[in-house]
Structure formats: structure tokens, C-alpha cells
Amino acid sequence: MSQSLEIPKLDTLAQELAAIQQTGSKKIALLGSRHVPITHQHLIEMMSYALVLEGNRIITSGAAGTNSAAIKGAMRADPNLLTVILPQSLARQPKESQEQLKQVIHLVENPDYDNLSLGEASAICNRDIISRCQQLICFAFHDSHTLIQTCKEADEQRKVVTRFYFD
To answer: Which residues does the UniProt record annotate as the domain Smf/DprA SLOG (predicted)?
Structure first.
């Protein structure tokens, strides 16, 4: 009985190694679940803060939880290195998120998606975010379907993807 090994292509390995070793600033997408314990939110905020202090640009969305923590950290370090892309218009965001989002310098709204469900709009928004970044850091649960799909799409685009699971 013979068994075939799946060996990654040399160019794939070279691309991943180059991305990991890249010095200088990167565009890093920080995405994740809305349902995050406060202690985890503090860790995400500190990570975002540290990444921006190193000169990296953070790209995230506007939801509560992970994205809100990423926004807080980046805003504290350097608001000019933060881009927030909303799945819909600012008016469609929860009231508690709107106050924070109004302070973001680089805020992209998508009012064309206001007629879609939040899940559909979020999937489109996440694709846009992935297209703009070099690396994705994702905080999710194993049943976070939209986020899991976003990670798969980032993998397919050969982005460096780091997954943290809460469960």
C-alpha cells in the first residue's frame, strides 16, 4: 500500500518565509468575534497597540468585541495607522460602537450593503479587508462560520494567517 505525501510547492514555502521574515511595516488585518471576554479584549487591545507602535498599519471592522479592542489599541498608539472598514453604513452600527467609530480618521462605510443581512455584508467586508492586508490575525470560535471562511479565503490568497480560538 503506497501513501502519497502532500508536499507544499517550493514557491509557496518561499512566499510564506519571505512574509514571515519581512521587516518594516506591514498591513495587518485584526478580525474576530463580537463575543469576547473582557480579559481577552484587553490582550487584543495590547497586541494592536504594540503592532502599531512597531509601525504596522491595522485594518479592522467596526463591531464590538475583538474589532473594538483592536481599534482602541491602534487609536492609542497612532490613529493615522488605523483603517476601519464597516460592512454597512455608520448609521447601521450599534449606538455604542458609533461613538468610537466617529473618532476614526480612516473610516470606510459601505452604505450599498445596508439592504443585506449583517452576515452577508460582513462576509463582503471581510473580503475587502483581506484584499488590503498582508497578514490576518483572527480571534474566533470554532463555529464562527464567517470568520472561518475569511481565514480560508486569506489562506487561498497566500496571506500569513494566525488563528486564535476562544474554545
So the answer is: 23-105
Confidence of residue 74 (pLDDT cuts 50, 70, 90): very high
Domains for the chain: give ranges and CATH numbers.
Answer: 25-165 (3.40.50.450)
- pLDDT tens across 62-71, in order? 889 999 999 9
| d(C-alpha 161, C-alpha 156), whole Å | 10
CA 160 to chain centre: 12
- In 8-144, alpha helices (H): 10-21, 38-53, 66-77, 95-101, 118-132
Q: Give pTM, 2 decimals.
A: 0.85
Residue with cell 474554545: 167
Residue bearing cell 486564535: 164
Statement: residue 129 has pLDDT above 90: yes
Q: Give the three-state DSSP class for 114.
A: coil
